[in-house]
Amino acid sequence: MDDRANRLKDKVAIVSAAAGAGMGQAVAQRFAQEGAEIVVTDAHEKRVAETAEKLSDEFGRKVLGMRVDVRNKEEMEACVQATLDQHGKIDILYNNAGINKLAPVWELADEDWQLVQDICLGGCFRFSRAVLPHMIARKQGVIINIASIAGWHSDTGGGGQAAYAAAKAGVMGLTRATAAEVGQHGVRVNAIAPGLIYNPFLERIYDKPWFAEKAAETVLGRMGRPEDVTGLAVFLCSEDGSFITGETHCVSGGRYMHA
After folding, report:
1. For a disulfide at 30, which of 45, 124, 200, 230, Cβ 3.0-4.6 Å?
2. In a domain, 133, yes or no
3. Which family is this sequence assigned to (predicted)?
4. Which residues are catalytic?
């Protein structure tokens, strides 16, 4: 295990969509390395149980794993209550759940549009709504919403991104609005907008030239790595980021730059 700085020591964090090999599990691992107590959630009950067991074994402390579909208000409320029962507080909410349905606007089915909005944007809203009364009562807390560079740039991914881009732009707006409302209560809300982050699953879909092409699109000449996002997340959730709220932080290797 890495000798991390324990910047999140004694914090309690809920991470959504944390099963499998994606960013959710990477963030949960990094938070645990930094000293946080972790609650992992996912819509896949078996995988989230396996993830919780894996993290418990790795860090030598109980990691709570719960099935939570971010479209389901009752499951989120049950997760919040279970977290309070086990840990007595919630310091961090990391809204990571997402999905995409690729289709041009004129071919995009209503149900696919709605599914993407419900998970990518609605999930951030509903989970935030579930934890905020507790954070406000304690006058402290941090929420991180995962947006995407697709929320800014319509050319991301080669087209067919209307549903995803709209949802992720909505996440940015939700982040600003929530931050404005809860800042007076000591709660901070930020978003992270990743570019293309490497995941082993991508190797099942794309060949080596595709990876080289995507790396060449960045100023730094490489694809993103999970630690590029997890390190920023730790910073934003720690005291080092205590004067930062309402912002969307781009992690794209310079692929897109903003004034």
Report:
1. 230
2. yes
3. Belongs to the short-chain dehydrogenases/reductases (SDR) family.
4. 164
